[in-house]
């Protein structure tokens, strides 16, 4: 009977041969989806320059590019033979950091949107963008950077290049404290931000609806009351950002379950590996959906198909379902401080 090390190595080699065709197919599909989303966004931004002036949409397009690089890198690693210690360290660093980078960029966009919409931060200020982006990049790269210089004996391994299909106690502790915790943090921050924005939109919509109904009692029925009261408008606004916290929750959190089960059961579960691979590849779908369902992107696409430039840009600091509240009701703290009115040419959008 071989040693425990040899048994684990044999199990890892079997798993690698079993999942190679599936990994190759899933990563190829994910690359196609991410590349298509990036080309779609970049093409619209080139044809409609106002799209690129929108900071959030610009960062969403950049996230598609890094997501495509992540899956391309994973595709290369499927059958790569890394023999040197330095190559393995760089490969693990890029694989772990690139898996979080597009997700954290999108979470950064949601947090910045919360600052603008809920906390009335001016979209003309640069420091909120810089600070939130630096924090997102720090959360992405700093924890993973330990793999570049940490000694293999810290993991109970002879080399970093050893495939850890069944993690030992030291590897499991490193994974949970250095890697998994930050993936959970990204999902938690995104979920709180989306929930905060959703609550704010619901309350603002109700306050605006009451103000318009009160105005209708004096000036007669108005189509604006029906438009603000339509639930589909609010649904479309939330549909644009709800995918951001779903991405790390669905695509990254299940990996923690897989590692935990493999660690405590001391074996590889093929069914869990398949589920983990499919959920990871769904990251391409979840990050591409905000671009596809975004009302501004769809309006730009429709305008381009009609053969003319998109209309005057709408202030994206305020959700498009909100109509401008009556002047008498502004400033009392019950209604949104912004309104969906055309911007002046000298003011930039998000």
UniProtKB/TrEMBL annotation:
This is Uncharacterized protein. It comes from Coemansia nantahalensis. The lineage of its organism: Eukaryota, Fungi, Fungi incertae sedis, Zoopagomycota, Kickxellomycotina.
């Amino acid at each position: 009977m071989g040693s425990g090390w040899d048994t684990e190595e044999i199990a890892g080699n079997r798993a690698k041969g079993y999942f190679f065709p599936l990994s190759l197919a899933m990563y190829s599909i994910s690359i196609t989806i991410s590349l298509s989303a990036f080309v779609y966004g970049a093409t619209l931004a080139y044809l409609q320059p106002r799209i690129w002036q929108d900071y959030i949409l610009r960062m969403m397009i950049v996230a598609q590019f890094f997501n495509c690089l992540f899956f391309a890198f994973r595709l290369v690693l499927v059958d790569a033979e890394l023999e040197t210690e330095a190559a393995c360290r760089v490969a693990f660093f890029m694989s772990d950091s690139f898996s979080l980078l597009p997700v954290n960029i999108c979470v950064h966009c949601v947090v910045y949107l919360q600052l603008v919409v809920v906390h009335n931060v001016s979209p003309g200020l640069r420091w909120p963008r810089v600070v939130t982006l630096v924090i997102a990049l720090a959360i992405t790269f700093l924890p993973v950077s330990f793999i570049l210089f940490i000694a293999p004996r810290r993991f109970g391994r002879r080399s970093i290049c050893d495939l850890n299909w069944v993690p030992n106690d030291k590897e499991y502790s490193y994974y949970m404290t250095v890697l998994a915790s930050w993936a959970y943090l990204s999902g938690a921050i995104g979920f709180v931000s989306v929930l905060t924005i959703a609550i704010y939109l619901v309350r603002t919509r109700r306050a605006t609806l009451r103000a318009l109904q009160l105005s209708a009692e004096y000036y007669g029925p108005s189509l604006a009351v029906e438009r603000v009261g339509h639930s589909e408008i609010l649904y479309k606004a939330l549909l644009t950002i709800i995918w951001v916290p779903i991405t790390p929750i669905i695509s990254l959190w299940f990996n923690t379950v897989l590692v935990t089960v493999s660690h405590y059961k001391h074996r590889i579960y093929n069914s869990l590996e398949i589920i983990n691979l499919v959920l990871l590849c769904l990251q391409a779908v979840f990050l591409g959906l905000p671009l596809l369902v975004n009302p501004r992107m769809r309006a730009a696409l429709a305008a381009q198909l009609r053969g003319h430039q998109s209309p005057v840009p709408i202030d994206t600091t305020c959700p498009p379902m909100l109509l401008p509240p009556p002047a008498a009701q502004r400033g009392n703290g019950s209604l949104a401080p912004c309104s969906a009115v055309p911007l002046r040419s000298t003011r930039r959008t998000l």
